Amino acid sequence: MEFSSYKNWIHKSTFIPVKTEFYLANGEAYRTYEALKVEKIDGFHTVVQSRMTDTRIGGSTTMTYDKVEYDIDLPEEIFTERYLRAAPRQHLR
């Protein structure tokens, strides 16, 4: 892992991590994750937009999640180490 430790800020009523700071061994915060937008989808509070910022280089990446679905009847056998390494394509679409 690149980081030595991290600190999380958790929203009290939804339990969603809204901010995470990652620290190097010397105590320097070098990367920050932020949940930018949360929506309630199928009854679940869901992060639909987030950003990761690298404070050393000043760059950031914003991620947007669309077409989020829950309870889609995935087969139990795909929750194995094998499928974590190579996810079955038919379930990614």
Using brief descriptors, characterize the structure shown.
mainly beta, 5% helix, outer membrane lipoprotein receptor (LolB), chain A, 93 residues
CATH C-level name: Mainly Beta
Q: What best-fitting shape do the alpha-carbon axes yield?
A: globular
Largest sheet: 5 strands, antiparallel
Radius of gyration, in Å, reads: 16 Å
Broad structural category = mainly beta
What topology, given as strand order, has the largest sheet?
1-2-3-4-5
Provide the residue-averaged pLDDT.
Answer: 91
Q: Span between N and C termini? A: 30 Å
Kindly report the name of the CATH homologous superfamily: Lipoprotein localisation LolA/LolB/LppX
Helical residues, percent: under 10%
The CATH topology name reads outer membrane lipoprotein receptor (LolB), chain A
**Unreliable runs, pLDDT <50, ≥5 residues?**
none
Second CATH tier, the architecture: Clam
Count of strand segments: 5
Total domain modules: 1
Beta strand %? over 45%
What is the number of helices? 1
